[in-house]
């Protein structure tokens, strides 16, 4: 698969405790993106953050299960990201979704070892 140079970065902000169909929402989103053959997805777990409620979520040792922030990033062609948005809307009850134009400089495996 090849990505166009002018692509879109979809960034999804949710909580670690969010779920969809009995599984973690971030996992369900990544699996759906893979099923739809999007360019790739990465899940990042935040150490601290807050959202709409302004409630602070942190990974401090005394608060181990505090619904830490999760960010999912997906890059692909604009039309493929736009086709994914209604699917994503059906999976999410809350959170934040952003979309921005990016330039893909490299995609795929690195050079082979010699």
UniProtKB/TrEMBL annotation:
UniProt-listed InterPro entries: N-reg_PII-like_a/b, N-reg_PII/ATP_PRibTrfase_C, UPF0166
Pfam family, one: DUF190
Gene3D superfamilies in the cross-refs: 3.30.70.120
Domain of life: Bacteria
Record family assignment: Belongs to the UPF0166 family.
Protein name: Uncharacterized protein
């Amino acid at each position: 698969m090849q990505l166009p140079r002018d692509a879109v970065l979809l960034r999804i902000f949710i909580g670690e405790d969010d779920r969809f169909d009995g599984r973690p929402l971030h996992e369900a989103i990544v699996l759906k993106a893979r099923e739809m053959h999007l360019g790739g997805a990465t899940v990042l777990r935040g150490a601290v953050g807050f959202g709409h409620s302004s409630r602070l979520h942190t990974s401090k040792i005394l608060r181990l299960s505090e619904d830490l922030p999760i960010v999912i990033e997906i890059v692909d062609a604009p039309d493929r990201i736009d086709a994914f948005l209604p699917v994503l809307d059906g999976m999410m009850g809350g959170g934040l979704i952003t979309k921005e134009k990016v330039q893909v400089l490299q995609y795929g495996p690195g050079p082979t070892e010699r």
